Amino acid sequence: MVAPVRLDPIKDVPPLAGFTVAVTASRRAEELGSLLERRGARVVYAPAIRIIPLEDDTELLAVTRECIATQPDVVVATTGIGFRGWVEAAEGWGLADGLIRSLSKARLLARGPKARGALRAVGLQEEWSPESESSSEVLEHLLEGDVEGCRIVVQIHGEPLFDFSETLRMAGAEVIEAPVYRWAPPDDPAPLQRLVELVATRQLECVTLTSAPAAASLLRCADEVGRLPVLIEAFNRDVLMACVGPITAAPLQRYGIRFVMPQRARLGALAREVVTELPRRTPVLPVAGQWLQVRGQAAVVDNVLKPLAPGAMAILRLLAERPGVVRARAELRQALSGGEDADDHAVEVAVARLRTAIDAPRVVQTVVKRGYRLAYEPERLREEDGVDNAALC
């Protein structure tokens, strides 16, 4: 691949135009999708999980009564929505005043600013909160003191924090988990199954994840349909995986899947991360006196977005992998057909349609009896940037 150059030649096209991005969130999905669409992306929605509120859950009710009857020493609020949900459920049971009164006498730790805000909204004040918004740092903070014999209540949101709780128990603490919400597979698995196939066949360029259960659900779905190895390969080679934070990414790390994430775990920051990283993965090439960038299902030629049909896109993508290098007709047939039967005439038709679609016939050169190549001009990199970028190609 060619080293990406500065993106100034493509500055007038929205950064995500031509790219397809998947949103797997079940909550605030439209908010994230809107952020991406405003930057030009085509968004595919495929909820990976559904959230089940536990207002009537006997386990949460039992934990609430226990917190009121037996004073906890430490309470850890891990999420804002989870803590608010706990208080709302307690209000429904007529136990909110007793719960808040009991919590006010405990040491309160908040994992991040949203959890801090939820505590303060009901008149509570946290003792400490990490800047990193990391559960690991909260655990380290607790273990710096003597937790043996302490009653520690951990508000969880979704999947249990097994490592967090078990480590505290091993240190001698009594740990009580307060599960406010549970995750379940989506009611309709078809969109998620379709997403797995889109990733496997490289028909989209980025998948966004906003929770660890969603990440686990995506991997489980891929495994159930026999596409997990292909999915992992796609993420590690061609498809960008963007996670909102390290907790979300944890299931991916177990499979060695590469991912990017923003410094702060926020939807806006996640959208900005995609805006930065996705165009960076596709080089801007000087070709036949023009600037060319190959995007998901389109090309940008001198600041004009050119949507392409699948056949033309497959040809252009192959030529752009090694710009200036002649690609034999056999390679082009393979790219065009995906392993199915295709002949030289089909290649010629696809190339002709490509030239017409991008309105730049000189971009793709015919090399008689050999194949086709991009009319790549690496010397223009030196002229434009004042450095020998061609040496990086």
3D structure, described in words:
- 43% of the residues lie in helices and 18% in strands.
- With 393 residues, it is of the alpha/beta class.
- It folds into three domains: 8-49 and 186-280, 3-Layer(aba) Sandwich (Rossmann fold), CATH 3.40.50.10090; 52-183, Rossmann fold, CATH 3.40.50.10090; 284-392, Winged helix-like DNA-binding domain superfamily/Winged helix DNA-binding domain (Arc Repressor Mutant, subunit A), CATH 1.10.10.
- The strands form five sheets. A four-stranded parallel β-sheet has the order 2-1-9-10, sandwiched between helices.
- Strand 13 and strand 14 (304-307) form a beta hairpin.
- The model is unreliable at 1-7 and 386-393 (pLDDT under 50).
Structure characteristics:
disordered N terminus; 3 domains; four-stranded parallel β-sheet; Rossmann fold; 393 residues; disordered C terminus; 17 strands; Arc Repressor Mutant, subunit A; alpha/beta; 18% strand
Topology:
Layout: E1 20-23, H1 29-37, E2 42-45, E3 50-53, H2 58-69, E4 74-77, H3 80-93, H4 96-104, E5 107-110, H5 113-121, H6 135-143, E6 151-156, H7 162-170, E7 174-179, E8 181-184, H8 190-200, E9 206-209, H9 212-224, H10 228-237, E10 240-243, H11 246-253, H12 267-280, E11 284-287, E12 290-294, E13 298-301, E14 304-307, H13 310-321, E15 327-328, H14 329-337, H15 344-358, E16 364-367, E17 371-374, H16 379-385
Parallel strand pairs: 1-2, 1-9, 4-5, 4-6, 6-7, 9-10
Antiparallel strand pairs: 3-8, 11-12, 12-13, 13-14, 15-17, 16-17
